[in-house]
């Protein structure tokens, strides 16, 4: 019989996965676009699995106080993972054509918009329930709104404005990951 991980273990693993997603997706995109498309695709598909795993690990913890938020986080992560995988799959299938590049870029933007929307819901839950310091939860709200806005700006051709906004979300995710690895969530009252 398989035993479920404790909340603390699940959060520590989720934190490691948050950190792993950055090099998996970024490294995968680099390889995909630099003559190693299958290796890149493999890393990006690994990222998609990591993204879904984060949702699966967080869902039961969040569901204790908000089943709806838990569902939004899980299905947001599933949708994000599927969308992020779709662009690189098209890139490989269409042999790096201009259409393939455009689909790859659009899938990243759409995946990050989904992450931004689900991340705002998650961060608002953290503000309400206080499993982390309120300032960290507020960073999440700001970061995920900034991420979604950055993706809309990128689609509108405003690349110079979007980079700083993406960084805000990235900083939150790194700080949050380190927090949940080191501290977990505060005990519920």
Q: Brief description of this entry?
A:
This protein has 189 residues and is an all-alpha fold. It has six helices and no strands.
Explained architecture:
The chain is mainly α. The chain contains 6 helices and no strands. Helix 1 (7-32) packs antiparallel against helix 2, helix 3 (67-93) runs antiparallel to helix 4 (98-129) and helix 5 runs antiparallel to helix 6.
C-alpha-based Rg, rounded: 17 Å
Portion of residues in beta strands equals under 5%
- Multimeric state: single chain
| Sheet having the most strands | none
Question: What's the total number of strands?
Answer: 0
Q: Helix/strand/pairing class, anyone?
A: mainly alpha
Number of helices: 6
Q: Name the overall outline.
A: globular
**What is the count of structural domains?**
1
N/C terminus separation: 31 Å
Helix content: over 70%
Unreliable runs? none
Series of secondary-structure elements, N-terminal to C-terminal: HHHHHH
What's the rounded overall pLDDT mean?
94
